[in-house]
């Protein structure tokens, strides 16, 4: 079987408010970044499936005959992509020799690729191909590299399998995927995110699929088309961390102290809603210092809440202190525990 070659890209994201709380059904506000992940898929005729992931030093190649033995025997599953198939995950973990829960980057990315490849091709003829993924995003730093990777994988494999059309003809300038195709991409990207994160909310893959700024609530994606121009400084503490571990840590804390943590999540929800209201006002009336005062206070309160949830880090405290000494307000973005922080810059802030 010969598949169609394709080149796909997806953006990373910054979460303004609502990380972690969004996993528990609260509102999050997120925006796409001009830092992207790229995937090139090429048909091959060597009877092999290869993945090249230079950002995480991963280069793996399998014989098609090996992969055929893992055949999930699914039929017509291309439309779904809602729940992980536990049997297939189990077989893939055995195939890769995985024994523990917290996998390294390379095994995680490989597992996500094989899951998508086998789910979408496993019931029919399996094609020989090479997939190469590279990114402008730092890996594991809170900017949604896992979601951008997942969106690229889902879009490329769906496209190669013929489930959605090729994104860009030579004479076109913008992608032509319809809403239904994007929803299919998003649902399969969500599956790949589940392999990486364990229990993702879906906000990161939604931003990776649709781009722009959006409000996310319990799986519902609400694009925010009227938002003011905000300048945000992004700082990478370069402290490595894993979203999966941090999401699990917050869950444990909620289970241990529900009456203490649930009000914190509710407060984060109110922060996201208040922030959305202020951003909306800023597009309808002249922007005032008071708007910025509120946005800054919301950032400070949320950062305290994230510390209460147990996802802070001394490097992020340093970011908050260093920027506060210059009158600026910062919070972590993404899963925390290191990774990146955002700092709101007022218009005219000195270089
Ligand atoms: N460019 C990439 N190539 C291969 N795998 C990637 C890439 N970017 C991200 N990943 C996968 O995503 C994981 C990081 O996900 P996560 O902990 O959620 O951090 P992030 O905040 O960057 O999304 C990596 O360990 C790797 O498995
Ligand atoms: C912590 C969380 O809210 C965002 C995680 O983002 P990232 O993987 O750190 O980029 C988890 C989620 O929403 O799935
Ligand atoms: Mg992630």
Automatic annotation (TrEMBL):
Q: What class of enzyme is it?
A: transferase
Q: Where is the GHMP kinase C-terminal domain?
A: 293-350
**Domain GHMP kinase N-terminal, chain residue ranges per copy:** 124-208
Q: One short Pfam family name for this protein?
A: GHMP_kinases_C
Checking InterPro entries in the record gives: GHMP_kinase_C_dom, GHMP_kinase_C_sf, GHMP_kinase_N_dom, GHMP_knse_ATP-bd_CS, Mev_gal_kin, Ribosomal_Su5_D2-typ_SF, Ribsml_uS5_D2-typ_fold_subgr
The record's comment on protein family reads: Belongs to the GHMP kinase family. Mevalonate kinase subfamily.
Q: Sorted alphabetically, which NCBIfam families does this protein's record hold?
A: mevalon_kin
| Role noted for this protein | Catalyzes the phosphorylation of mevalonate to mevalonate 5-phosphate, a key step in isoprenoid and cholesterol biosynthesis.
Name assigned to this protein: Mevalonate kinase
């Amino acid at each position: 079987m010969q598949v169609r070659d394709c080149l796909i890209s997806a953006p990373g994201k910054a979460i303004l408010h609502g990380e972690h709380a969004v996993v528990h059904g609260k509102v999050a506000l997120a925006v796409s970044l001009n830092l992207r992940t790229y995937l090139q898929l090429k048909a091959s005729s060597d009877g092999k499936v290869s993945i090249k992931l230079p950002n995480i030093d991963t280069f793996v190649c399998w014989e098609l005959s090996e992969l055929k033995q893992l055949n999930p025997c699914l039929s017509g599953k291309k439309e779904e992509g809602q729940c992980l198939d536990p049997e297939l995950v189990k077989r893939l973990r055995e195939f890769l020799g995985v024994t523990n829960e917290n996998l390294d980057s390379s095994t995680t990315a490989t597992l996500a690729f094989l899951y998508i490849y086998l789910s979408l091709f496993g019931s029919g003829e399996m094609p020989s191909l090479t997939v190469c993924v590279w990114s402008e995003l730092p890996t594991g730093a809170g900017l949604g590299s896992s979601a951008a990777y997942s969106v690229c994988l889902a879009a490329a494999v769906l496209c190669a399998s013929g489930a959605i059309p090729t994104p860009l003809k030579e004479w076109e300038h913008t992608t032509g995927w319809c809403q239904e195709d994007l929803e299919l991409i998003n649902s399969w990207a969500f599956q790949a995110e589940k392999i990486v994160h364990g229990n993702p909310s879906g906000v990161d893959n939604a931003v990776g699929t649709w781009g722009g700024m959006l409000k996310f609530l319990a799986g519902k994606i609400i694009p925010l088309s009227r938002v003011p121009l905000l300048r945000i400084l992004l700082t990478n503490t370069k402290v490595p961390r894993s979203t999966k571990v941090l999401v699990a840590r917050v869950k444990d804390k909620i289970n241990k102290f529900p009456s203490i943590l649930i009000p914190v999540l509710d407060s984060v929800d109110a922060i996201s809603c208040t922030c959305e209201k202020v951003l909306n006002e800023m597009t309808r009336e002249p922007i005032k210092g008071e708007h910025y005062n509120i946005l800054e206070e919301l950032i400070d309160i949320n950062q305290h809440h994230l510390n209460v949830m147990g996802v802070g880090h001394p490097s992020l405290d340093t970011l908050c202190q260093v920027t506060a000494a210059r009158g600026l307000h910062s919070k972590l973005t993404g899963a925390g525990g290191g990774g990146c922080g955002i700092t709101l810059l007022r218009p005219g802030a000195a270089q």
